[in-house]
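Hi all, long-time lurker, first post. I run a small reading group and we've been trying to get comfortable going from sequence to structure in the token notation. Rather than ask abstract questions, I figured I'd post a concrete chain and ask someone more experienced to write out its structure so we can walk through it together at our next meeting. Sequence below, copied exactly:
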Amino acid sequence: MPRPAIRRQRGASIIELMVGVLIGMIVIAVVYNVLILSEGYKRSSIGQADAQVTGQLTQFILSREIANGGAAMMMGVEDLAACSDWRMRALPVAITAGATAADSDQFTVYYSSSPRVVHPVRFSGTVAPSDPFWVDSPNGFKTGDWVIATNRSTNCSLARVTAITQPNLSPYPPAGVGGQVKLAYTPASAFAFDTGARLINMGPAMTRIRYTVDAAKIQLNSQSVNWLDPGFPLPVVPLAQNIVLMKAQYGVDTDGDNLLDCWTDAEASSPCGGIDYSGPTDAAASGGGGVFANAATAVQLRAIKAVRIAIVVRSEHEERANIVSASLVNQGLWLFNCAADDASCLRRIRVDTVLQDYVRYRVYETVIPLRNSLYNQ
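-- Answer (accepted) --
Happy to help. Here is the structure in token form:
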């Protein structure tokens, strides 16, 4: 009988299957590698963009606050320059320098919220500690305003208006009281003033805000340090993340020509006229150092024309080591440097120790004129 035909086997052998799996694994590895590289560059771009937005926003906030420093109080520089309590002196921005170049500076912005009377007004007569204020100003004050009474020397006292009484002005002011107003007050301390003393209206709130960098959290904070606020000092408020360093310097006119000609840190041995510009401790009741503890003159206070700040911002994440160029390793930079990288550039700062490898940084610098000081010359 005829033998049946043998059916030949068909399909893939084990060898072919292994080759196909190997090719698929190679393709998957290539795809994943491309994806990882793409995500790394994407994260790098996003990190740079975030750092840029953070730096620009921080620069805008700080510039606006510094520019507002001294609002509605710089007309009283001559009256407040020598106050024994440094907290009442009319300095728009008080800088406290960090211990080293790698430590952030902090600064405190001080301004009034008075919407009307911004010029010191005179007392109409001698004032005893229990007497109301008679001042030569028929309007502009209101209940709740903070006022500073000063003899234009070291005697400066703070009070809050509790009531306002005006003489009978109808049909005409009585003789000797025209254009005057009587202010009852709650004093922070007992005081007495002679005729010729001045009263400065600080408005319903005296704003004193301190800006600092928390090195542990790498963030910029603000804090109200007005000693009149209930619960002083108030809690710290975070403003921006990834702020590595903040430095600030005074711009000083040393020769009285109203042109800025010197930059200085907040230090005791300043090259700008030999004045002690070291900053105070805001939490202290008195003292503090520099132009605050010493009897600074109005000329010295007005000599401060501007403030310049430098902000160092870092990216959120570290770069992968194998995609970072050599320029990102062992970084170092200069702050407040001249365009030509001149070694004689006044008060430039070298920063190294706060910078890390494989992290991208952006630096923002700006000069803020103290416009309230300039406008109220």
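A couple of things your group might point at:
The CA atoms of residues 272 and 324 lie 43 Å apart.
The first helix runs from residue 14 to 68.
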